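Note to self: keep these together.
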Amino acid sequence: MRTSTRIAHVLTGLILAFGGAALTAPAAHADPSDCINKVEQELKTRGETPAAVRAACYFAVTGAHDECVTGLTKGSGVTNGTAVTACGLSDK
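Structure:
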């Protein structure tokens, strides 16, 4: 087999391998800032976001939606409806 043909085959294989990996890779999670911003709208906080809100919103990013909702409703005084909405913004 000629060298140029061999190089073309190798390059084609690499393109297919890496292209397939990119297509099957999981989607990136949303930023926790979407969740935090939603909570701040309800709480009308000014300045730094409370640590309990940031921690709860990070749960949503990892896919722990229930822990996010519980953390916001029990730890931060957010209504259940807003907590469900906010956690849903960051678990996509």
